[in-house]
Amino acid sequence: MARLTQPDVAAHNRAQIEYFERAGKEAMRPASTPYVERQVDALVRFAGLAAGDHILDVGCGMGRYTLPLAERGFSVEGLDLSATLLGRLEAFNAGRHEIPLHCADILELPESLNGTFDAALGFFTLHHLHDLSASFAAMARVVRPGGRIVFLEPNPLNVLYYIQLAVAPGMSWQGDKGILDMRPRTVFAAMKQAGLTSPALERFGLFPPFAANRPLGARLERRLEGVPLWRPLLAFQLFRGDVPPGPRTAHDSRGARDDA
User: Fold this and answer.
1) Contact 138, 56 (CB under 8 A)
2) Could you give phi then psi for residue 159, rounded to 5 degrees?
3) Which of these, 129, 107, 106, 246, lies nearest to 187 by C-alpha position?
4) Are 158 and 233 in contact (CB under 8 A)?
5) CA 244 – CA 198 distance, rounded (Å)
6) How far apart are the two ends of the chain, measured CA to CA in Å?
7) What is the pairing mode between strands 197-204 and 54-58?
8) Residues 6+ apart with CB under 8 A from 252
9) CATH of 6-242, one of 1.10.10.10, 3.40.50.150, 3.40.190.10, 3.40.50.300
10) In the predicted model, what is the mean pLDDT of residues 134-150?
């Protein structure tokens, strides 16, 4: 992904805010379904998170994944460009969990957050960021030494995403074209440039929600995931990079974990 100038970043962010605020994007609303719960469980396992870990949910939106993370016992903070979406997250949360929220670009988090988090993570957010390497470097700044950065993203080799872009209300190629940058070579190169280590990838998932949310569909999906022919085409990709170990800061709460 090409490095953008400051005016380009501002225009990019305005376009993203407009894209996600348009019509509220029904698919972003919190919903406890097998489809969503599996995505959260897969990322938690891949990231090696433990209950009580302090995590930053990047691009948290209305809290579709933030709230399930809080319900699993994590200390969660949310980051999003849109004050409107963060307001909706607060409404959906209804005071159940203490979730500090930050309305900012990932590159503009305050220095007071340096080394605060055990992990920075996101769900379907990475392909919307304006500069992968700069964004990874900014996340590495707020994650403690030995922590990790993990994202769940679409697989650009899966044709279902392009069908979804063509038919789903509120989605567009202009808003989601960053999917093409979600190739392991591109993401891992950005991680390396940002100083992250031990890049790792895992793929899972095959069916859309209407099938994956049914018991028969979920069982069939897991069987098909084990077929080597399908593995490169599985719908979801988990990317992980680790922040190199270093001197502990005052914010550090636990030792480094490496479950890649």
Assistant:
1) no
2) -65, -20
3) 129
4) yes
5) 9
6) 25
7) unpaired
8) 115, 144, 145
9) 3.40.50.150
10) 97
Phi, psi of 88 (to 5 degrees): -70, -35
Residue 77 dihedral angles phi and psi, to the nearest 5° = -120, 150
Is the pLDDT at 17 greater than 80? The verdict is no
256: left (phi over 0), alpha (psi -120 to 50) or beta: beta
> CA separation (Å) from 74 to 57, 114, 117, 177, 259?
11, 19, 11, 32, 18
In this prediction, residue 16 carries a pLDDT of 75
Task: From 43, 29, 235, 228, select the one nearest 122 (Cα to Cα).
Answer: 43
For residue 219, how far is the Cα from the chain centroid? 25
Q: Per residue in 49-92, pLDDT tens?
A: 999 999 999 999 999 999 999 999 999 999 999 999 999 999 99
pLDDT over 70 (residue 23): no
CB 149 within 8 A of CB 119: yes
Q: Are 194 and 212 in contact (CB under 8 A)?
A: no
